[in-house]
Amino acid sequence: MSTTTTYLPTPPSEPDHHTSTPTPAERATIYLPTPFHPRAERYAEEKFGKVLRNGVDGKEEELLSQADGILLRIGNIHKPQLDLAPHLKAICRNGTGLDMIDLDECVRRGIMVTNIPGGNAKEVAELTIALSLIILRRIKESDYLITSGQRTPSITVLSPGLMGKTVGLIGMGDIAYEAAKLFLAFGCKIIIWSPTSPLNKWGQSESISNLILTSHPLTPIPILIPTHPSPPKEEPRFPKTSSSPNLPHRSKESQTTTPNTTNKSQSSTSKYAPIPHMRVNSLNDLLPNIDILSIHCPLTPSTKNLIGYDQLKSLRKGSILINTARGGIVDESALIKVLDQGILFGAGLDVFNVEPAFGENLGELGKRKNIVCLPHIGSSTDEGTYIGCIKAIDEMVDILNGKPPKHPVR
After folding, report:
1. CA spacing 20 to 30 A to 143: which of 23, 29, 246, 294?
2. Domain with CATH 3.40.50.720 in the chain
3. Are 168 and 193 in contact (CB under 8 A)?
4. For residues 20 and 26, what is the distance between their CA atoms, to the nearest angstrom?
5. Global pTM?
């Protein structure tokens, strides 16, 4: 009896994903000068051929020589670093500020630079409020008193508090906007100096005569500010341009007789919902009329030492300074001087001229009980840092794969 052999059809082979051609990003070598969020570093290892960490995988000069891209959180990338990176195609920063990158040199070399505008705005604004509260409620001082063994009756640490204060903001970017919203929740009044911002960026500004300003955080008194018959003198650091509109002070009378000239198309296209605020033309109009000076502008040649002794001494007695922007904007020696003179009630600093700031690097700033010093942690929440790092990685992937990035700087 013969038997018939039946052969089953051969099943199709499984596709071999490992033999597919890797994308340029998957072949690329990426350099991390400083750590990213741990979860984001694992994500980067999935996206790129090799991820090199400074101090872990070798010395900086050795790692830069291999780098196709740099993922930057903090640290400087200037000409000396660029000279060591002949293959560099892109620098993608987790953060907004770009003063640590030599942008002109990157342009000359054809290196793409990106950032994450507004990515850390809520986090930095949150810290701005925290610093304000720590100073205005004398939290650092009170903690020191009781932890050092001193009995401290509450009547001996009365504080100005934050509620109802007048806040002066320098800048109108995303961080300033988020900070303004939080200050408003404390019943604060907002006055802004931002000469390069559109007139109605945050909606129509109020007349300064509608604000009851205070000469001291504990003693509210009305301040009369005259209207200007002619436009005020322009700031020498920020000459007027078409994007730097004249912002005259207006009395209630002039406000009622002057027609509304709001640029409707401009306000309708703004990404910012209108919030109550007042605009002024100069630092001279801002500083004498506020309880809190909060800095939210980038560090540029024009803003280097923008706040020096002359500016600080014009602040009203009992005011405070908050700087979560960049250290070079404030003259630190001048700050010490006005604190010693009793002009300022205190200062909250998350940024310094020399960073990292700790120990002896802080100098006199670290010896004052009415100065709160933090190690540049404005954006350092767990989730905020993770999201920002992921966005920077995705930008790098797009650039290396020939796609346009979402936020190119140069």
Report:
1. 294
2. 22-119+383-400, 121-378
3. yes
4. 11
5. 0.77
The SS3 of residue 330 is strand
Question: Could you report the per-residue pLDDT of 6-43, keeping only the tens digit for each?
Answer: 555 565 555 554 456 888 999 999 999 999 999 999 99
**Is the Cα torsion angle 12, 14, 20, 25 positive or negative in sign?**
positive
In the three-class reduction of DSSP (H, G, I as helix; E, B as strand; rest coil), residue 90 is classed as strand
pLDDT digits (tens, 9 = 90+) for 312-362: 999 999 999 999 999 999 999 999 999 999 999 999 999 999 999 999 889
Structure tokens, 117 = 């505008």
DSSP code per residue over 229-245: SSPPPPPTTS---TTS-
Domain covering 121-378 in this structure, CATH number: 3.40.50.720
- Best CA proximity match to 203, nearest among 147, 157, 250, 272: 272
Tell me which CATH code domain 22-119+383-400 carries. 3.40.50.720
Q: What is the dihedral of CA 130, 131, 135, 138, to 10 degrees?
A: 40
Question: pLDDT by residue (tens digit) across 129-138?
Answer: 999 999 999 9
How far separated are the first and last CA of the chain, in Å rounded? 84
295 burial type by CB count under 10 A (0-12 exposed, 13-18 middle, 19+ buried): buried
Q: What is the 3-state secondary structure of 100-156?
A: CECHHHHHHHCCEEECCCCCCHHHHHHHHHHHHHHHHCCHHHHHHHHHCCCCCCHHH
CA distances from 325 to 150, 193, 248, 312, 376 (A): 35, 15, 27, 17, 9
Asked whether 201 and 172 are in contact (CB, 8 A), the reply is yes
